[in-house]
Specification:
Elements lengths: L20 E4 L9 H8 L5 H9 L4 E2 L2 E2 L11 E4 L14 E5 L3 E6 L16 H9 L5 E2 L8 E7 L2 H12 L4 E9 L8 E8 L8 E3 L5 E11 L2 E8 L6 H8 L27 E9 L6 E5 L5 H4 L1 H5 L11
Parallel strand pairs: 8-14
Antiparallel strand pairs: 1-4, 2-3, 5-6, 6-8, 7-8, 9-13, 9-14, 10-11, 10-12, 12-13, 14-15
Length: 322
């Protein structure tokens, strides 16, 4: 069996907290030049743009920028920065709850994605923290939905990432969420909701189907007033949109949810009425130090503080006292 060559470090720095694109040239390449390969491999990129990138020295190999007629070298690695889409800035800050040489724990606002994906690239918690903290190797230990605020954890060095990811994958992290949703006096709580959830690629909403349950969520009512309830949600499993779907199936969908029970399409610059769901805390035994850890969000849910202001589009999920 042929050993794969180790990947050399990128000769290009990050841009706006985003790594350059890395490509590996196939070993069985039939192209005469790198340019020919890129034209075939990147059909969404106009050949004229590829030519311009090569002329400007924007495509690099491990030894430096490539010339426009650079010959094809099987197995070589290439790097370049892709054109980043224009993004609507999310007007809320990421607060750092904890930082050491191993971990960064952040308090993410609503509307900010955790990591680059789709149309959200530089306006993400990861890109912001890399830039603001000067930590280019920062990586997510897990992810939090873009519309959900609260505690999210990152690792400072690549060699530590797997240990913390294993905590989440092995369900050894106790997670608690808080939500504001309608209050139904006839709904018996606390209870554990179990169902089978499927999420199809390209479809925004997950759905519950008959069959063996693959998800479980503990739902507790903490208090209620004015027709609203404040709930504690404890996910036993980690399916996409699990808590939001389970609350909707109970007949008390989380306030501000644009997907459950019905999909709406808010404008990308509409930061009013944020989803009233907050990742309140993470608790676990640290796999590196063996210490007990607990991190708690400082944010509040604005609909519980003042439903009228939230309904009118008031301040979204800023840090504050409970």
């Amino acid at each position: 069996m042929r050993r794969r060559r180790p990947v050399p470090p990128s000769p290009l720095p990050q841009r706006h907290g985003i790594d350059p694109v890395r490509l590996r040239l196939p070993e069985d390449g039939r192209w005469e030049t790198v340019r020919d390969h890129l034209v075939d491999r990147l059909p969404a990129v106009a050949p004229a743009l590829i030519d311009a990138m090569l002329r400007e020295g924007a495509v690099w190999c491990a030894d430096g920028p490539l010339a426009p007629a650079a010959p094809y070298r099987p197995g070589a690695h290439l790097w370049f920065h892709r054109e980043l889409p224009e993004e609507v800035p999310v007007p809320y800050a990421v607060e750092v709850l904890y930082r050491d040489d191993v971990l960064v724990v952040a308090d993410k606002p609503h509307f900010l994605a955790t990591t680059p994906r789709g149309r959200h690239v530089t306006e993400t918690a990861l890109a912001r923290l890399r830039r603001d903290l000067g930590l280019p190797a920062l990586s997510p230990a897990h992810r939090l939905d873009r519309l959900t605020a609260g505690v999210v954890m990152f690792t400072v060095r690549p060699e530590h990432r797997a240990a913390y990811q294993d905590l989440f994958q092995g369900r050894r992290v106790h997670k608690e969420y808080e939500a504001v949703a309608p209050h139904d006096p006839g709904l018996e709580l606390p209870r554990t909701v179990r169902s089978r959830i499927v999420k199809e690629r390209g479809v925004i909403a997950a759905r519950e189907v008959p069959g063996e349950p693959n998800s479980a969520s503990r739902v507790e009512l903490l208090e209620h007033r004015g027709g609203l309830g404040r709930y504690r949600l404890v996910p036993v499993t980690g399916r996409t949109h699990q808590l939001r779907l389970h609350m909707s199936s109970l007949g008390v969908p989380v306030l501000g949810d644009p997907v459950y029970p019905a999909v709406t399409d808010p404008a990308p610059d509409d930061f009013r009425r944020p989803l009233q769901l907050l990742a309140r805390s993470l608790e676990f035994t640290d796999p590196i130090t063996g210490r007990a850890r607990r991190f708690t969000s400082r944010r509040t849910l604005s609909a519980w503080e003042c439903q009228r202001r939230w309904a009118a589009g008031g301040t979204a999920g800023q840090p504050g006292r409970r």
